[in-house]
Write a structure and sequence with these properties.
The chain has one domain: TIM Barrel (Alpha-Beta Barrel), CATH 3.20.20. By secondary structure, the protein is α/β, with parallel strands linked by helices. The strands form 2 sheets. It has an 8-stranded parallel β-sheet with strand order 1-2-3-4-5-6-7-8. 39% of the residues lie in helices and 16% in strands. The mean pLDDT is 91. The longest helix has 17 residues. The protein contains 14 helices and 11 strands. Bound molecules: zinc ion (ZN).
Length: 375
């Protein structure tokens, strides 16, 4: 079968997981995560990153869309180290350099740091390269206008793909300073919640104002997206990444998947980070959607985790399908059910496939993972 495409990961948070314990509230979880990440030694963080890549491969994944929290000042896991881990893993990757900052006085410095990282590490945009790079605007509520403007210009100038966490939280709507969760978030960074007072009520409008809603934009989560916003995604052919288990853990709810499908929003699937999930397997993710929406045809879910993921990462027609002219990225699965007919094939695959059923993973024609025999 075509390899699975995990369109939203944070591999550099792998050392903080897998999660255990009851669901958490989003903002306290996020602040705790930032604190715990700061305590990780460079060695542990790097080992976690590599283990995340291996876990993805072992679950049958051939390609990931990974957010790189590079930090400011630079983190212990800078781009050259990531690059060499990614190259060694064999995975096809699109790494988004993340920017974040609501304080307008820091915008110029952060934009120029991003600019120099892009110039140094993301010189080409060829979609045929196995390792590609883009930019992530963390979220509309965590990025100032003064930062969004130069970042959008940089993305346009370099034709770089963009990723953004979008409407994951209810406080992203108008006047978030009245929401205690957002005030708590801002207090941790020393930001003034009133800085968002002049924003339009929909974060999509704000993104559009900065020309950040293009077919090269990848929207992540969309839990609180309304009908009008869903139509905007559909019209602009912007892919949305569903991260169901992360959403259930941190928010106790799922996005309006039916509405995305009926309006024709291109869908992909992601695990998000292991700090908010119990595995990096898209099989577990697909099962989570299927269990809550059993009426959605399993073939649609399978498509989202393969060809849909490819389209989301700018690889439409090049990955996510087995077709002449595509990259030779595929996964060998030994199913735990009898394949004597294609009837209910996707249903059976999603219901029963575990990582242990994945026998091998081939990327660009090279065997990159082979399950060792266990008697
Ligand atoms: Zn995320």
């Amino acid at each position: 079968m075509p390899g699975l495409i995990n369109a939203h990961t944070h591999m550099d948070l792998t050392a903080l997981g897998p999660l255990d314990g009851p669901p958490r509230r989003f903002v306290p979880w996020l602040l705790d995560l930032i604190h715990r990440r700061s305590l990780l030694s460079p060695r542990v963080r790097s080992a976690g990153f590599q283990s995340g890549l291996h876990r993805a491969l072992a679950s049958g994944t051939t390609c990931i869309g990974d957010i790189a929290s590079l930090g400011f000042p630079p983190s212990s896991l800078e781009i050259p180290a990531r690059r060499s881990f990614l190259a060694r893993s064999g995975l096809r990757t699109l790494t988004f350099f993340e920017v974040l900052g609501l304080d307008p006085s820091q915008a110029r410095e952060r934009a120029s740091a991003l600019d120099s990282r892009v110039r140094k590490h993301a010189p080409g945009v060829s979609r045929l390269r196995r390792l590609r790079f883009g930019i992530s605007i963390h979220a509309p509520y965590s990025v100032s206008d003064d930062l969004a403007h130069p970042v959008a210009r940089l993305a346009r100038r370099r034709s770089l793909p963009l990723a953004v966490h979008l409407l994951e939280t209810a406080f992203e709507r108008s006047r978030p300073r009245h929401r205690s969760a957002f005030r708590e978030y801002c207090a941790a960074f020393g930001w003034n919640p009133a800085w968002l007072d002049d924003r339009p009520s929909s974060p999509l409008e704000w993104l559009d104002r900065h020309h950040l809603l293009t077919p090269d934009t990848l929207a992540i989560h969309g839990i609180h997206m309304n009908q009008r916003e869903i139509s905007v995604l559909a019209r602009r052919k912007i892919s949305l990444v569903l991260c169901p288990r992360s959403n259930l853990y941190l928010h106790g709810k799922l996005p309006p998947v039916h509405n995305f499908i009926s309006r024709g929003v291109p869908l992909a699937v992601g695990t998000d980070s292991l700090a908010g999930n119990s595995s990096l397997s898209l099989w577990d993710e697909l099962r989570a959607i299927h269990e809550r929406f059993p009426e959605i045809p399993p073939s649609i879910l399978f498509h989202a985790a393969t060809a849909g993921g490819a389209a989301a990462l700018g690889l439409a027609g090049r990955a996510g399908v087995l077709h002449p002219g595509c990259r030779a990225d595929f996964t060998i699965v030994r199913p735990s059910f009898r394949v004597d007919t294609t009837r209910r094939l996707f249903y059976n695959l999603i219901r029963s496939t575990q990582d242990a059923n994945v026998q091998g993973v081939v990327i660009d024609g090279r065997l990159r993972y082979q399950r060792t025999f266990q008697p």
